[in-house]
Amino acid sequence: MADLLSLLTLVICFASILTLMKCFGKNGLFVYSTIALIISNIQVLKLTKYTWIENPVALGTVVFSTIFAVDNILTEYFGAKEAKKCVWMSFAGYLFFVLVMKIATLHPFVEYPECINLHQEMDDIFSPSFPLFVSSIASYITSQQVDIHVFSGLKKLARGKHLWSRSLTSMVISTFVDNFVFSVLAWMVFANHPVSWSSLWNTYIFVSYLVRLIIAALCVPLVRLARVFRGNDDVQEL
Predict the structure, then answer these.
(1) Partner of 217 at 20 to 30 A CA spacing, among 12, 114, 119, 134?
(2) Which residues, including other chains, have CB under 8 Å from residue 45's CB and lie 6 or more apart?
(3) What are the extents of the domains in the chain?
(4) Region class of 195: left (phi > 0), else alpha (psi between -120 and 50), else beta
């Protein structure tokens, strides 16, 4: 069941990316990245279990992984400068969301029969721990910059050719960076009880990265297909 639901989520993400790009050009991709970042950081609170892998995986992995494909689309068709702008715009949008929702959780609880449990549920969802928040943001910005630089660097070396291999290579590298940076910061640097390196690799890095590799491979055709769905923006195929 989880496998089919995740596949459905991926299809919806792909359709949303192409539709937003067709309707709004690069601005549509900016919107998608911001929303996807917010969604994935909420979904990460829940784990899912796939039939083909033993350990559970954070639910937000699928949605978050598609953001790297958006980076490649922006870099390929609109230039690295626009891709970097998207990273900082999505970061600003996520920061605004977290701050506003954190303030919302500070409002005094009002006794009302139908809302007894809603107050605590809202606190649980929108009150992330500071260490996890910092780890998430640090890994996001770092990995996104790596993705853009690797993809644009390979594009120059390949003289604009080999899009499929460039996309896959950049996503393989950048998703590992994201997973590694977050895991080290969250479960070793900021953790009250740091895990061992072996536990860090086997439990927090390897399994999640394996799923991300599969999603990265599935995202590669999307970067190519996006050529057909470009809006009316000035395209810079550099």
Answers:
(1) 134
(2) 59, 124, 125
(3) 2-229
(4) beta
